[in-house]
Amino acid sequence: xxxxxxxxxxxxxxxxxxxxxxxxxxxxxxxxxxxxxxxxxxxxxxxxxxxxxxxxxxxxxxxxxxxxxxxxxxxxxxxxxxxxxxxxxxxxxxxxxxxxxxxxxxxxxxxxxxxxxxxxxxxxxxxxxxxxxxxxxxxxxxxxxxxxxxxxxxxxxxxxxxxxxxxxxxxxxxxxxxxxxxxxxxxxxxxxxxxxxxxxxxxxxxxxxxxxxxxxxxxxxxxxxxxxxxxxxxxxxxxxxxxxxxxxxxxxxxxxxxxxxxxxxxxxxxxxxxxxxxxxxxxxxxxxxxxxxxxxxxxxxxxxxxxxxxxxxxxxxxx
Amino acid sequence: xxxxxxxxxxxxxxxxxxxxxxxxxxxxxxxxxxxxxxxxxxxxxxxxxxxxxxxxxxxxxxxxxxxxxxxxxxxxxxxxxxxxxxxxxxxxxxxxxxxxxxxxxxxxxxxxxxxxxxxxxxxxxxxxxxxxxxxxxxxxxxxxxxxxxxxxxxxxxxxxxxxxxxxxxxxxxxxxxxxxxxxxxxxxxxxxxxxxxxxxxxxxxxxxxxxxxxxxxxxxxxxxxxxxxxxxxxxxxxxxxxxxxxxxxxxxxxxxxxxxx
Lengths: 319, 261
What we know:
The complex is a heterodimer.
Chain A: E1 3-7, E2 10-11, E3 14-15, H1 17-29, E4 31-38, H2 43-52, E5 57-62, H3 64-67, H4 72-85, E6 89-93, H5 96-109, E7 113-120, E8 125-130, E9 135-141, E10 147-150, E11 165-168, E12 181-187, E13 201-205, H6 215-225, E14 228-231, H7 233-237, E15 258-262, H8 268-271, E16 279-284, E17 297-300, H9 303-318
Parallel strand pairs in A: 1-4, 1-6, 4-5, 5-11, 6-10, 7-10, 13-14, 13-15, 15-16, 16-17
Antiparallel strand pairs in A: 2-3, 7-8, 8-9
Chain B: E1 2-6, E2 9-11, E3 33-35, H1 37-53, E4 56-62, H2 68-77, E5 81-85, H3 95-108, E6 113-117, H4 128-136, E7 140-150, E8 155-162, E9 165-172, E10 175-179, H5 191-197, E11 202-205, E12 224-231, E13 239-242, H6 247-257
Parallel strand pairs in B: 1-4, 1-6, 4-5, 5-11, 6-10, 7-10
Antiparallel strand pairs in B: 2-3, 7-8, 8-9
């Protein structure tokens, strides 16, 4: 059975949940081969996880070259493996970094690229929601090795423990790929909350919060639910919450089990980033807010009363 | 500084976007079209860098004849000249083909800096900056929320958006910079700017003029194909409840009933 390459998504070696999702998907398409790229010493932290989720093989590149430059070196690794291993497909997660790497890999290997797939069948037909999820498209790569960018939360990760063969990839990264050097990484938020795009529950705040400090209400509710915190563009434009947390067009697309919109009107830009959420709950004082047109449960009321009560009630029910 | 900024005309965010029934490409005919919003930030950043360091800003777009409206907008904001790659043969090109075509045009302009937006609101691929860097063999400085150029030293640095903060990324010029929309506040074209735009040089290129191989462009040569496209089942509005002092408790009840808590 031909290999399906999965680019491992990780933070300093700790695999992200989407890696398990991609390996689960890859098992249905062929023989899952994980591709781990990271700084020296990081692979050890990923090893057990990749075995747990059924990687049959792990290609390992541990070097400063793949860790210290934007995108291009990892694309060189993937392109080399596409050439050497002739995989059925390459799967990467729909993160800002990895979609760029996927695109460069497709360009290097003269292959087709599909982004934001939410499902991929055995014959490599991908399903995508386009225009913010309002149109469902089935598409297929017709040239080269399909490079498919898959949305987090598209597949439930299922463990399939094995003992993968490890292959150290012998590659010298070209000078041209080492041209955009990461000289510093600055953490601005150390929230301990789940990643926005991976979270099962997202609580987002918008214009209705009125001020940056009122995001504390949203954060408290989020923490009660083990949720990630999102924000509408109105809130990030106002500087109330970091841009990294923006949900919607020009921000992140999320598809959690539960999305709670607090003080968000639900204009089309926001809707484009969250309307594929399984269940949507909206709290807004304006009964005419567009979000009520597509929320599963809408509460017309003052968020400053409703949100603390909801937080307390969830705490109470948790016992 | 010789700065190239790419722009794209897209269906208005407020328009009901759809795919053409026949060839399943983005319907650009039955909707209002505007400059991709994030491109306004790209144009603004190009103008700011020019104002700080001198030079010239060239707008480059690929798109149908009416995409000239988007070029006019960029020129009226203050860009100096424009190149419009337009040809029926280009219709239906995917991101890979588009990046190859744009790279060909951009390379002919020998820029010090190429600025692009991180995403267009129609396709939302978020890949064009990376692809242009790949095609042009230039450093990829995408997801930039801040750009610092030092033409004397031939250097450019950005703050690249990361999940929990940012990365400081440095490169030598020439380079490709991809901007996000928090980077600046785009200016509105002034009346004077709008009048001046009409006299600014605009070069229109066909695929052949740009040196593109006819067999490599357009829908028929795209590396992926849309097999089927259908409207998503519309989300139905659910239960709407007015708060009567127990709204939080009611939501908790709903979540519990759905086994979400």
